Amino acid sequence: MAWGFQSWDASGKPNNYGIVPITIVGRLLLNFEQLTASQTFTVPDGYVLDYIQCPRSISYTTKRRVISVSGGTVTVRQGGDTSFGIGTESAQAATIVVYLRRA
After folding, report:
1. What pairing do the DSSP bridges indicate for beta strands 94-102 and 23-30?
2. Which strand ranges, in their side-by-side order, compose the sheet holding 88-90?
3. CB of 94 closer than 8 Å to CB of 56
4. What pLDDT is stored for residue 82 in this prediction?
5. Across all residues in the chain, what is the average pLDDT?
6. 25 and 41 in contact (C-beta within 8 Å)?
7. Chain centroid offset of residue 79 CA
8. Helix or strand or coil: residue 8?
9. For 3-28, what is each residue's pLDDT tens digit?
């Protein structure tokens, strides 16, 4: 019996892959309201870097950070206090977990 959640793209092709294995390659430890950081990682052919922000504490702040990935480099820079787009995170004390996924 099949159960769970499924979604499809516009042409009807399933695009929900469930749990996808990843390889963690490193982390960046960011302090509360820290707005800049950068680290470079080795990226094998056929893979790209991605990240997830894991807060270590929750405190009030209006400050935002923008996290971008270009090639093998993850860069953190200051964002606008009212920026809430993709790649923009609250400037909480956090661990940025960097991982590889297939391109």
Report:
1. antiparallel
2. 37-40, 73-79, 64-70, 88-90
3. yes
4. 86
5. 91
6. yes
7. 15
8. strand
9. 677 888 899 888 887 777 789 999 99
Tokens of 20: 């996808």
CA distance 37 to 34: 8
What is the pTM (predicted TM-score) of this model?
A: 0.78
Res 1 pLDDT > 60? no
More confident residue, 1 or 35: 35
One-letter amino acid of 63: K
Q: Residue 48 is which amino acid?
A: V
Terminal-residue alpha carbon distance, the chain: 32
CA 92 to CA 96: how far, in whole Å?
A: 11
User: Can you give the pLDDT at residue 3?
Assistant: 67
Q: Is 54 in contact with 97 (CB distance < 8 Å)? A: yes
Structure tokens at 28: 């960046």
Spatial separation of the C-alpha atoms in residues 71 and 22, rounded to whole Å:
17
